Fold each of these.
Amino acid sequence: MSENPSCRGSFLALTPLLVFLACYLAVSLVAGDFYRMPISVAFIAASAYAVAITRRVPFAERISRFSAGAADPNVLLMIWIFVLAGAFAETARSMGAVDATVDLTLHLLPGRLLPAGLFLASCFVSLSVGTSVGTIVALVPVAAGLSSETGMNEAWLTAIVVGGAFFGDNLSFISDTTIAATRTQECDLRDKFRVNVRIVAPAAVVTLLVYLLTGSGADAVVAPGRVEWVRVLPYLLVLVTAVAGMNVLKVLLLGIAASGVIGLATGSFDLLAWCGGMGQGITGMGELIIVTMMAGGLLELIRFNGGIDYIIGHMTRRISGRRGAEGTIAGLVCLSNLCTANNTIAILTVGPIARKIADRFGVDRRRSASLLDTFSCFTQGLLPYGAQLLMAAGLTGLSPLGIIRYLYYPAIMGAVAVLAILLRYPRRI
């Protein structure tokens, strides 16, 4: 797409993000309630403002640009995932898969180890499947079920799953962020992993210790029921096929089919009730789908008006030394992520510039790839309008901000990554 010639490298292009933050974050904080301000209303205000500040372009073309961003292939792919995830989540719940999985979890782990065990499970699954969204789809319903059975805070358990999901999204060999980072920096996947794991493993250990300590008083007060293994099969099937590398859309379709067959065979519902459940699950994702499309349109106008060019131009002017170069790479991908709400797109946007900065200031490309991936996942993990938090909120009915307040791992990972830059760790690669 061509750029808007009147707004190249413009700070004004970034102000729709400030409008969104003012409408959503500020109002929620002032009201003291994260549920008072609907995220869709905040996006309407920010989108209307973005259209209004797009200069020297006919109104019809502004709307066309906004619509093109809303219909971007990456946005539409995420919407199809949301649709199928909603159908699978409701079908599995109606069939009894969530309750059966919760009973199995309570049998395997005592209450005080549930938070740490859930975090480890999320880390393992995300590392295996390479997608944070897929991990959230599989495990957030289980976290919600555990909350209702044990009385633990639902937002806290959901945040544990989301945090662990970003661990694998950052490190997995089949993660799109890992592939984007290594391709743009022209380094090997294995080498990037060796450097990256030394940065984020300490963050994961610290987070695990936090959950072990905070979960010490969280003993489950209910006795788990008898585990009905046949009802656990849809989740096991989803996990196994995802680990095997099957496309996430195929995985969700297979999960829907398995839940339906088992539900019909066990008498949990009839054919019409199955179809009704799928429809209800899809309808429940309606606001999430609308928000995703509006975010895509808003971010396309920010890009078109020169917001990303402005960020890149100002952050690459005054670089001095290796630490400054690494800090600039980290800042570039963070700000780009804020403007795209997609960590893979953010890496692809600033990756070539990051490679030039790394070569000029002697930063090892394996390290620059690790920094790109780590800081993009850090930013994405704290975005209330990021796909991961929107998905978790859609599956639980919680507010994204209500989940963020308990989201420890991305924050700890970001702090450790900053220390890694300041202390030049690891020194030997």
Note: DSSP finds 21 helices and no strands in the chain.
Amino acid sequence: MSQPRPGPIRVGPVRTRTTATATATAFLLTAALCACSAGGTTAAKADAKAGGGQGKDRAATVTVTPHGPRARVGEPVVVAAKDGTLTSVTVTDARGSGLTGRLSHDGRTWTSDRNAVPGTAYTVEAATRTKGGTAGNAHASFSTAPADKVNKVDWRPGDGTTVGVAQPVSLVFDHPVRNKAAVERQLKVTTSNGTEGSWGWMKDWSGRDRVDWRPKQYWRPGTEVSLDARLNGTDSGTGGGWFVRDYKLDFTIGARQVVKVDLDAKRLTMERDGRTVKTFPVSGGTPGRDTGSWRGTEVVMAKEGTIRMNSETVGLGDAYDQKVDYAMRLTWSGTYAHAAPWNAAYFGRANRSHGCIGMSDANAAWLYEHAQVGDPFEVGGAETKGRVALNNGFGDWNLGWDQWRARSALR
């Protein structure tokens, strides 16, 4: 994704204003002079009188990077002054959106907070003051090269939603992310109560790169959460392409509800705020490598209602093909909690499903009504087939805190 860096080019004195063109690569500000010339780095040196005409006030020289008609992207815009200081800098794109930035302590450089983004024309307005105190102002423009490949993001949870205490912020990328640290630096999660959390990278169940942010412990009910993914202008790295937009979402944490499934006792219990709300019999997966239930913490990914379940889609041949009601997805591999009236003889007695958590119609209806997307299902029992994988749904909680933080690209 690298592009050659054109070196600075300085030309002779400029005493008249000329028209900025697509080939203008930088500009120089002089006292009471606005200069912008084509064909390389713009430079001008003009006499500037100060102190009542006593002596000559040397003109300030100002350069801008990146520069040119197809300027390098993925870096901040930097404006630098020589023989003077910058008093203000404004950088705007063709839509009038501005890049904020900061002046250095000595006033000699201004650096944008954001990177220049692909396929965008920028106008730079700046003002300087020379050592002798003479003010100047000028403008220039440059354009960035368009992205040859664009990376996009799929995210959960949805904007404006209310979710359970185990819901992570989850971003899945269309293309590979090699520059994980650079991408992670652009991802900011803020909460209404200073919740401690961390990003962790993994391969999604789909095989794509994915990064989740989860708290150290389950969310506190009522927490307001915001994600500001300021990715526009960030390079994914080799084979991944550029991000050309930002992403922002806000969501709220609902009641503290934890569903505990004991497959030894064959019972499901919902707790709300630490108190038992309801408990009833269930039947989990028939013990075995293919049909047993996963143990560990699974998270309600979606409430899908009535769905068709076909065993061929999960590698179990023609074992079943039927509609089920009140289905709530727990893993990508096909684990659900749902009504299973055909298994009524086993509720509370034996685990005889193909891996799902089955229950009566009435109990499934009640659970479906009260459970939230993001609620944790804490599943345990000797007859389970193993711990659910990190990327099989939202298995983030199956790692200890130190293990999870180690998955951040910034650790």
Note: The CA atoms of residues 196 and 395 lie 19 Å apart.
Amino acid sequence: MQPTTAAVTSGSLSPVGRTAAPLREQVIAALRHAILSFELQPGQRLVERELIERLQVSRTTVREALRELASEGLVTVIPQKGATVSAPSAEDAKDLYEVRASLESLVVRRFVERASDEQAQRLHEAVERFAAMTATSDDIRATLEAKDGFYEVLLEGAASEVLETLLEQIQARVRVLRATSMMRPGRIEESVRELRGIVAAIRRRDADEAARLCADHIWGAARSALTQMEAVAG
């Protein structure tokens, strides 16, 4: 994906508030939210002057925030050229999906081992909400948010702060890839079927099958995303 030259639009960001949270953390949170919600697009240039004006903070604060987001993989900083919203290459995508498949499979195993029947029921309900939403809307942002509900319950039931932190980091890095994957015709319907299969195995307390189906789901998403990326590049 090539960087775009679009500027930060008036609707993308607003001045940060003066709350108890340190100003730097507020700016990081505002920019992170704008990136993950696609208000700032992959490949878009992040012009310091525009960010300073929009957020009404100092150049130092903006630069510190961009460095933090670069460490998270959400921003790419090129010396002498500035910062852009990260846009993963095909090679990056393959590596990210491989890590994600292994990590999410482990999270699913921990859910089977540790989650209550009530949490397993809530996981089922989260999938059905995702299915209902996607059946009536083609809004990719809303689709991602609906699927986030599945991960919230999954991580709660897995009860591992370590896995939660790692998965949240990976999910942030692959969010644009998840959106790309779901743009392929038929992928959302496949995703619903795959998630239902995972939940069914979880409710049977079959950790091996649930983990296998989870890995299959991630690799299905990877193939879909890479196909879409190749189509755009071609």
Note: The chain has a mean pLDDT of 89.
Amino acid sequence: MYFENIKGQEFAKKYMINSIKKGSINHAYMFEGIEGIGKETFADELVKILLDAKYLDNTPDCIRVKPDGNSIKIAQIRNLQSDIVIKPHKKYKIYIIDKSEKMTVEAQNALLKTLEEPPEYAIIILIANNKESLLPTIRSRCEIVKFTPIPFVEIKQYLINQGIDENRANLLVSFSRGSMKKALELAQSNDFYEMKENVQGYIETLMGKNMVNILDIPSKMESYKGDVIVVLDIMINYFRDMMISKENVDKSMIINADKIVFIQNMSKKITYSQVSKIIDIIEDTKIKIKGNCNFNVSIQVMSLNIYEVIK
């Protein structure tokens, strides 16, 4: 059976299997979706099927284009164009362009000419985290196959099968955003658990209601500037756990089960309404930071707004 090793992605599987069976393979595809949900693996499996190859390492009819530094340059696309005129050993010649949104505008415009009139044996697969980062003219000439986040239950079961205990798997899944790759990276990251401990410290500072200490939170969070969204997500999960702790519901829903004593103690100091307002404040801060608002100002405003809620 095709694509047996791919987790989730039932739509993509069904779509491509139907195309293979009907012999209606397109000359250009764009596999789009967040990082770590199997787009690259799916592309590899598709190539193996189309080229009837067990391995791709020594397959001359599969060429992968990757960013050279921070971008895919026009010279790389020129090389592709020089190679694509050489006929394949088998039925197809397939090009996989990884992180295709990193193509420069010049590279995209060069590729456009090939997408408009490809050789009959050529297939170009663009792997993209966000199709909107590519020119509309590129998108319009590709068959777009949308890859969706992997269901949390599948990621959790996979982690458990890898020997990770259920409570830890729940925590990892909650930060995976549906990405198996992200969940596995977090499972192997000591930095993640250190970050989690530091976030607990930020919350203790906020709940301590000492204005001097609260104003120092932005400088303490400075080292996580590149991962601030993850930090804020951890913070949100702590406050959601406090909300659950206050309710008469199944405590197995608590994500930070390893911090249950801390969560219960904090939840006694805050009302349900206050928790709800704090979560809204943090979510709003995430939006501002994603919109390139100043990091220090955003975190300071967030901290002061939370203080106003709990003072």
Note: The longest strand covers residues 122-128.
